[in-house]
C-alpha cells in the first residue's frame, strides 16, 4: 500500500532518471521548432570593433622546419594573433548574440563554409560555422597537412590531408571557439566557432560587423578575441531598428 | 530505514532536534559518500617508483595479490621498459623501513615456578618494539633484481634476514630466473608477507615445527635459506615453479650449521633441495584460485669431528623431509589459505643420537613423523580494512621414542588467531597499519613438572609503520 | 552542466556543500515537510545513477561499473585520479601522463578518429598495458575484473551516454608480401610525407619531430621504427593488423592523424609492408623479401630536406 506522496516520489524518480540521461545527450538537439524567416521588420545590430593601448609586436614565425613552406614566404612570416587595420580597428573578432534567443531553433544551411591551408597558414584565421554545417577544408599547398581540432565541447579528431585535397567535416555542438592546429607545422593555428543560431559575424581588418534579421527583443551581444578575451553588452532592439554597437578591447 | 516520515516533526526552532527523516537521510548520504571516498593510495619504495597505490599489489599490505605476485615474479619489474634505475627521478632510492611499536600481553599456563615448586600461569605485559626491518629491493638494471634486508631484533641484535641478487627473464623467458644468496623459499603462502605479528600468532607453526628432543638444525620452510634458486612463471604468473639447491645451514652465514641449539662454526658440507609448483585458474565471479605442492628434502649432521674441542666438520648426516600441498581460494572479498604438511625426520635426528652410535638409540626408536595444516581466512572490507582469522594444528603421528607412551601428544600444537588491520593512511610515501590481534596455542604435554598441556596466549595492539 | 558538477563535488570529498544544503535547508525541509526531502533524495540517487548503470561487453563477459569502482580505487587511482582526469597523486612524476578519462579521447582504437573506442579496445589496452609508460599490463587480474574496470572508466565522461562507439574499421585480408607491395608502400610514405615527422628512415627524427606536442601540450616523439629487435615497443599492439589500424584510425590525443580518408585499403597494406622494412633489426618476411629483391633501405635525409639553420 503506497500513499499518494510515495507514488509521486516514485514517479518523480522515474521521470528524473529518464530525464537525466537525456540531459547528457548531445545538447543542441532542441525540439524541432520553426526557424523564424528573415522578416521584413527584422532588426539589426551593426558596429565596429577597435582596440586601445599598445598591442605586442607580432612574433616572427620560422617555417624553416619545412622548406616547402619557407619557400612560399620570401619575407619573414608573422603570427596571426592580431589582425589590425587603420585607426585601431581589430579583425578576427567574433561578434555574436550570446543570450536572448530563447529556445528557438534554426535550420542548418546546406552550403559549406570553406577554410583553406595556403602558404602553410590557415585562411581565414578565424571562421564561424553553424552546428552541423559542413566545413570544407582545402589543402592548397604542396605539402601534407593534418587538421587537428582541440575542442572542449565536441569530439577531438585528427585527419591527414595530403597536398591538393579537400575534406568535409562538421561539429554538432556549439563552441566558441575550437582551436585547430596542424602537428606537422606547429606554427599553424586557427579557430573555428560553432553556433546554434545564425546571428554571428567575424570582423575583417576594418573591424566592422553586422547581425541582420534579428527578431525584436532583449539580447546580450558578445565579442570574442583569441588573445584579448571577451566583452559583452546588453541591448534592447525593436522591430525594424538598426542599433549601433561598438566594442573596444583594451590591449594589455 | 524509513526514507521519509510523513508530516515532518513540526518543530522549527534551531537547536531542536531535526526530524528523524533528515537525520536518517544524512546518515545514509554520509555513509554513501564516505564509503566512496577511500583514498586508496600508494606504498613506499615501489609505489613511489611507479605511482601505483599500495592496494594495487597488496590485498592489505604486506600480503600480495595477483598483480603484486606477478610483479615480484618478474624481478620487481612492471616490464614496460621503464624499470631500470636510470628512468627514475635522480632522488629516488628504493628503501623502506618497517617497525611496529606495540603494547602486548603474554600469558603462559603451567610454568614451573622455583619459589613454589609448583606449576602456575604466568603473565607479562607492557609497551614494546618489534624489530626494525630495513628493506631495500628493486632492480640494479633491466632484468637484474635484488633485495637486501638487514634486520634488527629487540635487544639491538643485527642479522641479515635476506640478501640476494636475481637474474630475471634469462633467454628472454619468464620461465628462467636464477636467484643467488639468502632468500625466502618460494612459498606461495608467504610467512614474510602475512597479516599476524604477535608472539604466538606471528609465525606459522607448520613452517618451523620440530618434535620435542629432535636435534635437526633445520628450522623449517619458513626460515630464509642460503643457496641458489631456479624459478619461473608464465606471463600472468598463474603457473609457477621453483627449485632451489640450499646449504644445510638453515640460512646461517659462515658455513655454520646449527644442531639443536649448538651452533657449530664452519662445518657445513651438505645440501638440501626445495621444490614447489603451483597453478592458478580464474573462476568467473569469484577470483583466481591457486593450488600447489611442495617438498623440502634435506640432511642434517648428527655429530661433528672436532679439533681441540672445536667442531670442524659436520658428520653423520641423516635425512629429513617436509612435503605437502596447499591452496589459496578467493571468493570475492574473502580469501582462504589452506595448507597441509607431512614432516619426517630420521630416527637419529629424532632421538638426538649421533649416527656413529647406533647402540645409543632407545629400544623401538623410530623416525618421528607428523602431520599439520592450517586454514587461514582474510576478509577485505575495503583496501584499508582487513580481518584475519586462522586455525592451525600440528599433530605427531609417530613419536621418535616409544617410551613416551604416557605423553603421546608431546610437541603437538593446536592454535588459533584472530585479528584485523586497519590502514588509516595509505599514501604514496608511507603506510601505517593499526594492528589488533589475539592468538592462542596449546602445546601438547610440554609442561616440565606434570607433562601436561600448556597454553600460550598473546594479545597485541600495535602500529605497523612502513616508510 | 549542473549535475556533472555535483557529481564532481562528491568525488572530490567536498561533501560539506551537500550537508549544508540539507542542514541550511533544514528549516525549509521542516516547514514544507516531505516534498523537499523527497526531491533531494531523488536528486542524490539520480546523480549516483548514471555511474551504477554503465556496462561493458566483450564476448560473453559483462562488466559492471559498480564492481569496477572498487577495483579502480584499489588499482588505478594513484595515477588516474579519483576524478578519472589523469591527475592522480603521482601523475606529476609520470611521463607520459596518465590517460584523462573525462576527456574520453583514447589512443588505441579500432574505430575512426574522433569516435569512442569499443569495449574490446579498452579491454585490450588494460590487459596489454602501454610499453615505455607507467601503465602496467593488468593481465594478472581475472578477465572479469578487467571488464568491470572498463565499465567503470566509461562513467567518467558523459560522452559515453550520448554517443555510441564508432564502427570498427574494416580491415581487408592481408595480401601477399611482395617487392612491388613494399616499393609501393615506400612511395606512399613519400607522398603522404610521413617522413616529415618519422624521418626518412623512420627513426622519429623528421624535420617536424622536435616540435611535436600532444593534445595536452606535452612534448611527444614520433615512433622510431629502427629501434629494437621486436614489436614489444608498439603501444597499440605490434601485429600487421595493429599497424594497419594505427595509421587508418590515427592515435587520438597525439599528433598522429588518421589516413583513412586518403589511403585506400590495399594501398594501406602496401604501406604496412613498407613500414616493416624500416624495422631494420627485426627478422620479418618483409625484410627478407626486400633484401631478396634488392630494395635499398631509405637514405638518410638529403641536404635539401634537412631543416636549414635554426630559428630565424
What general form of chain B does the structure show?
A: globular
How big is the Rg of chain A? 22 Å
- CATH homologous superfamily (4th level) name of chain B: Porin
Quaternary status = heterotrimer
Indicate the CATH topology of chain B: Porin
Going across the biggest sheet of chain A, name each strand in turn.
9-15-14-11-12
What is the name of the CATH class of the largest domain in chain A?
Mainly Beta
Structural notes for this entry:
- The complex is a heterotrimer of chains A (252), B (467) and C (312).
- With 252 residues, chain A is mainly beta.
- Chain A is 10% helix and 41% strand.
- Chain A has helices at 4-24, 67-70, and strands at 43-52, 60-61, 77-78, 83-84, 90-91, 94-99, 113-118, 121-123, 126-130, 135-139, 145-149, 159-161, 166-169, 175-181, 189-195, 200-202, 208-214, 217-225, 229-237, 242-244, 247-250.
- With 467 residues, chain B is mainly beta.
- Chain B is globular and about 65 Å long.
- Residues 1-15 and 24-43 of chain B have low confidence and may be disordered.
- Chain C has helices at 2-11, 16-24, 26-32, 34-53, 65-75, 77-80, 119-128, 143-153, 159-162, 179-191, 195-198, 240-249, 265-278, 285-292, and strands spanning 55-58, 61-64.
- In chain C, helix 7 (119-128) packs across helix 8 and helix 10 crosses helix 13.
- Chains B and C meet through helix 1, helix 2 and helix 4 of B and helix 2, helix 3, helix 4, helix 5 and helix 6 of C.
How does the SSE layout of this entry go?
The complex is a heterotrimer of chains A (252), B (467) and C (312).
Chain A: H1 4-24, E1 43-52, E2 60-61, H2 67-70, E3 77-78, E4 83-84, E5 90-91, E6 94-99, E7 113-118, E8 121-123, E9 126-130, E10 135-139, E11 145-149, E12 159-161, E13 166-169, E14 175-181, E15 189-195, E16 200-202, E17 208-214, E18 217-225, E19 229-237, E20 242-244, E21 247-250
Parallel strand pairs in A: 1-20, 1-21, 7-10, 9-15
Antiparallel strand pairs in A: 1-17, 2-3, 4-5, 6-16, 6-18, 7-8, 10-13, 11-12, 11-14, 14-15, 18-19
Chain B: H1 20-36, H2 46-50, H3 54-57, E1 58-60, E2 63-64, H4 66-73, E3 96-113, E4 118-141, E5 144-152, E6 158-167, E7 177-183, E8 225-233, E9 239-247, E10 257-259, E11 262-264, E12 271-283, E13 287-300, E14 303-307, E15 310-315, E16 318-331, E17 334-345, H5 347-351, E18 369-382, E19 385-398, E20 413-426, E21 431-443, E22 454-466
Antiparallel strand pairs in B: 1-2, 3-4, 3-22, 4-5, 5-6, 6-7, 7-8, 8-9, 9-12, 10-11, 12-13, 13-16, 14-15, 16-17, 17-18, 18-19, 19-20, 20-21, 21-22
Chain C: H1 2-11, H2 16-24, H3 26-32, H4 34-53, E1 55-58, E2 61-64, H5 65-75, H6 77-80, H7 119-128, H8 143-153, H9 159-162, H10 179-191, H11 195-198, H12 240-249, H13 265-278, H14 285-292
Amino acid at each position: 500500500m503506497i500513499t499518494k506522496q510515495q507514488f509521486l516520489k516514485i514517479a518523480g524518480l522515474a521521470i528524473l532518471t529518464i530525464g537525466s540521461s537525456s540531459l547528457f545527450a548531445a545538447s543542441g538537439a532542441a525540439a524541432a521548432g520553426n526557424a523564424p524567416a528573415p522578416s521584413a521588420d527584422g532588426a539589426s545590430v551593426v558596429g565596429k570593433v577597435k582596440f586601445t593601448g599598445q598591442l605586442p609586436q607580432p612574433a616572427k614565425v620560422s617555417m624553416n622546419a619545412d622548406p616547402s613552406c619557407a619557400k612560399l614566404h620570401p619575407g619573414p612570416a608573422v603570427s596571426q594573433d592580431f589582425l589590425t587595420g587603420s585607426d585601431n580597428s581589430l579583425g578576427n573578432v567574433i561578434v555574436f548574440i550570446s543570450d536572448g534567443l530563447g529556445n528557438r531553433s534554426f535550420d542548418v544551411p546546406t552550403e559549406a563554409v570553406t577554410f583553406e591551408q595556403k602558404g602553410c597558414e590557415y585562411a581565414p584565421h578565424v571562421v564561424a560555422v553553424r552546428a552541423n554545417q559542413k566545413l570544407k577544408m582545402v589543402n592548397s599547398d604542396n605539402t601534407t597537412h593534418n587538421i587537428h581540432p582541440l575542442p572542449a565541447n565536441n569530439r577531438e579528431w585528427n585527419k591527414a590531408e595530403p597536398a591538393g585535397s579537400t575534406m568535409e567535416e562538421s561539429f554538432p555542438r556549439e563552441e566558441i571557439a575550437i582551436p585547430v592546429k596542424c602537428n606537422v607545422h606547429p606554427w599553424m593555428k586557427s579557430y573555428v566557432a560553432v553556433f546554434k543560431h545564425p546571428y554571428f559575424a567575424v570582423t575583417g581588418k576594418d573591424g566592422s560587423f553586422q547581425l541582420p534579421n534579428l527578431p525584436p527583443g532583449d539580447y546580450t551581444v558578445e565579442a570574442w578575441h583569441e588573445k584579448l578575451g571577451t566583452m559583452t553588452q546588453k541591448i534592447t532592439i525593436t522591430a525594424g531598428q538598426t542599433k549601433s554597437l561598438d566594442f573596444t578591447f583594451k590591449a594589455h | 530505514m524509513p526514507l521519509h516520515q510523513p508530516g515532518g516533526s513540526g518543530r522549527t526552532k534551531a537547536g531542536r532536534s531535526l526530524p528523524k527523516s533528515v537525520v536518517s537521510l544524512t546518515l545514509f548520504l554520509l555513509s554513501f559518500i564516505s564509503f566512496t571516498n577511500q583514498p586508496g593510495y600508494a606504498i613506499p619504495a615501489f609505489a613511489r617508483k611507479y605511482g601505483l597505490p599500495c592496494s594495487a599489489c597488496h590485498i592489505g599490505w604486506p600480503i600480495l595479490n595477483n598483480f603484486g605476485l606477478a610483479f615480484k615474479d618478474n624481478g620487481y619489474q612492471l616490464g614496460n621498459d621503464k624499470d631500470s634505475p636510470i628512468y627514475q627521478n635522480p632522488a629516488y632510492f628504493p628503501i623502506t623501513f618497517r617497525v611496529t611499536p606495540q603494547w602486548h600481553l603474554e600469558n603462559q599456563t603451567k610454568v614451573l615456578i622455583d619459589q613454589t615448586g609448583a606449576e602456575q600461569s604466568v603473565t607479562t605485559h607492557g609497551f614494546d618494539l618489534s624489530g626494525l626491518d630495513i628493506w631495500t629491493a628493486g632492480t640494479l638494471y633491466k632484468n637484474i633484481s635484488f633485495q637486501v634486508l638487514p634486520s634488527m631484533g629487540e635487544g639491538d641484535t643485527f642479522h641479515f634476514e635476506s640478501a640476494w641478487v636475481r637474474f630475471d627473464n634469462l633467454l628472454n623467458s619468464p620461465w628462467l630466473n636464477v636467484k643467488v644468496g639468502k632468500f625466502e623459499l618460494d612459498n606461495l603462502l608467504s610467512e614474510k608477507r602475512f597479516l599476524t605479528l604477535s608472539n604466538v600468532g606471528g609465525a606459522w607453526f607448520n613452517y618451523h615445527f620440530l618434535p620435542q628432543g629432535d636435534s635437526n638444525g633445520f628450522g623449517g620452510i619458513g626460515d630464509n635459506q642460503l643457496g641458489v634458486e631456479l624459478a619461473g612463471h608464465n606471463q600472468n604468473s598463474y603457473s609457477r615453479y621453483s627449485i632451489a639447491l640450499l646449504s644445510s645451514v638453515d640460512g646461517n652465514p659462515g658455513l655454520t650449521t646449527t644442531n639443536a641449539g649448538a651452533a657449530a662454526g664452519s662445518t657445513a658440507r651438505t645440501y638440501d633441495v626445495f621444490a614447489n609448483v603451483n597453478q592458478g585458474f580464474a573462476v568467473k565471479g569469484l577470483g583466481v584460485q591457486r593450488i600447489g605442492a611442495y617438498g623440502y628434502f634435506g640432511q642434517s649432521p648428527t655429530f661433528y669431528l672436532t679439533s681441540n674441542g672445536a667442531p670442524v666438520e659436520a658428520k653423520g648426516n641423516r635425512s629429513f623431509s617436509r612435503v605437502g600441498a596447499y591452496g589459496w581460494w578467493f571468493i570475492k572479498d574473502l580469501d582462504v589459505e589452506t595448507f597441509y604438511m607431512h614432516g619426517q625426520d630420521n630416527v637419529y635426528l629424532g632421538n638426538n643420537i649421533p649416527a656413529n652410535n647406533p647402540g645409543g638409540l632407545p629400544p623401538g626408536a623410530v623416525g618421528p613423523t607428523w602431520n599439520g595444516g592450517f586454514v587461514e581466512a582474510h576478509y577485505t572490507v575495503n583496501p584499508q580494512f582487513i580481518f584475519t582469522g586462522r586455525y592451525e594444528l600440528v599433530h605427531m603421528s609417530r613419536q621418535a621414542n616409544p617410551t613416551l607412551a604416557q605423553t603421546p601428544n608431546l610437541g603437538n600444537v593446536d592454535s588459533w588467531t584472530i585479528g584485523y588491520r586497519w590502514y588509516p593512511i595509505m599514501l604514496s610515501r608511507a603506510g601505517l597499519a593499526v594492528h589488533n590481534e589475539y592468538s592462542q596455542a596449546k602445546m601438547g604435554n610440554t609442561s616440565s613438572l606434570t607433562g601436561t598441556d600448556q597454553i600460550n596466549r598473546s594479545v597485541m595492539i600495535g602500529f605497523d609503520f612502513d616508510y | 552542466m549542473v549535475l556533472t558538477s555535483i557529481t564532481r563535488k562528491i568525488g572530490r570529498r567536498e561533501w560539506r556543500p551537500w550537508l549544508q544544503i540539507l542542514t541550511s535547508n533544514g528549516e525549509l525541509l521542516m516547514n514544507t515537510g516531505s516534498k523537499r526531502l523527497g526531491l533531494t533524495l531523488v536528486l542524490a540517487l539520480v546523480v549516483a545513477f548514471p555511474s551504477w548503470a554503465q556496462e561493458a561487453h566483450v564476448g560473453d563477459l559483462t562488466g559492471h561499473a559498480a564492481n569496477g569502482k572498487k577495483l579502480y580505487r584499489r588499482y588505478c587511482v594513484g595515477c588516474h585520479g579519483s576524478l578519472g582526469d589523469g591527475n592522480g597523486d603521482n601523475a606529476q612524476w609520470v611521463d607520459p601522463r596518465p590517460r584523462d578519462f573525462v576527456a574520453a579521447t583514447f589512443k588505441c582504437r579500432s574505430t575512426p578518429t574522433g569516435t569512442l573506442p569499443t569495449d574490446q579496445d579498452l579491454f585490450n589496452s588494460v590487459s596489454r598495458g602501454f610499453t615505455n609508460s607507467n601503465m602496467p599490463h593488468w593481465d594478472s587480474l581475472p578477465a572479469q575484473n578487467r571488464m568491470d574496470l572498463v565499465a567503470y572508466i566509461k562513467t567518467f565522461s558523459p560522452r559515453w551516454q550520448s554517443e555510441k562507439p564508432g564502427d570498427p574499421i574494416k580491415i581487408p585480408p592481408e595480401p601477399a608480401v611482395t617487392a612491388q607491395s613494399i616499393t609501393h608502400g615506400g612511395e606512399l610514405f613519400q607522398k603522404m610525407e610521413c617522413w616529415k615527422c618519422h624521418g626518412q628512415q623512420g627513426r622519429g627524427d623528421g624535420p617536424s619531430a622536435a616540435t611535436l606536442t600532444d593534445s595536452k601540450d606535452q612534448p611527444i616523439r614520433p615512433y622510431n621504427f629502427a629501434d629494437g629487435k621486436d614489436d614489444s615497443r608498439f603501444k597499440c599492439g605490434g601485429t600487421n593488423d595493429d599497424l594497419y589500424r594505427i595509421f587508418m584510425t590515427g592515435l587520438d590525443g597525439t599528433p598522429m592523424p588518421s589516413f583513412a580518408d586518403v589511403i585506400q585499403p590495399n594501398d594501406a597494406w602496401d604501406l604496412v609492408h613498407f613500414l616493416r622494412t624500416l624495422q631494420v633489426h627485426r627478422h620479418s618476411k618483409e625484410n627478407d623479401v626486400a633484401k631478396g629483391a634488392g630494395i635499398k633501405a631509405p637514405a638518410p635525409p638529403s641536404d635539401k630536406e634537412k631543416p636549414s639553420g635554426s630559428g630565424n
